[in-house]
Design goal:
The chain is an alpha+beta fold. The chain is built from 4 helices and 5 strands, in the order E-H-E-H-E-E-E-H-H. The strands form 2 sheets. It has a 3-stranded mixed β-sheet. A two-stranded antiparallel sheet has the order 1-2. The radius of gyration is 18 Å and the shape is globular.
């Protein structure tokens, strides 16, 4: 859901278990895993599995808000707040994220928040891409790369002159 702009599911999964039977690993994954045979695992989504990305309460609040945005880009409202809370009423079509960049405690939640305010309100000023938010976590680093690309697309669409015409 993080990287899929067309995600239309009613929920998201985040728990994984390691596949212990090498014969159950898809061939394409098995071929790649053999590059580093002693240090790799194949993981399956599993509702009873582990939270391998160590997602926390603020991550879940912003992930829930992102899910609402992915399913209906007009249904989510973000209200600036010193606390973090996500409220939803699917039958009424109300989805509200109470948060601010400063009130969020995790790298991922901050980046999801920045993505959402860019997409919903065209607010790009809060993100300083000269100082990266991600500090080495895999999912955080990948999402910040995605976020930077979204900002680039937004800025070049807003001002096509940002790209030099070399003809």
């Amino acid at each position: 859901m993080l990287f899929n702009d067309d995600y239309m599911q009613s929920d998201y999964e985040y728990r994984y278990t390691a596949e212990t039977n090498p014969l159950c690993v898809p061939r394409i994954a098995s071929t790649r895993i053999q590059v580093y045979p002693g240090s790799s695992e194949y993981l399956n989504l599993d509702p009873d599995g582990s939270n391998i990305f160590a997602l926390q309460a603020h991550d879940f609040a912003t992930l829930d808000a992102l899910l609402a945005y992915r399913n209906d880009g007009t249904a989510l409202t973000i209200i600036d707040s010193t606390s973090v809370e996500y409220i939803s009423d699917a039958t009424a079509g109300i989805f509200i994220l109470y948060a601010s960049l400063d009130s969020l405690s995790t790298q991922l939640s901050k980046m999801i928040y920045l993505y959402l305010i860019l997409m919903l309100y065209d607010r790009y000023e809060e993100y300083n891409n000269e100082v990266l938010i991600s500090m080495g976590g895999l999912i955080q680093t990948c999402y910040e790369s995605y976020l930077i690309d979204q900002y680039f697309c937004f800025m070049t669409e807003r001002n096509p002159d940002l790209i030099a015409d070399c003809d």
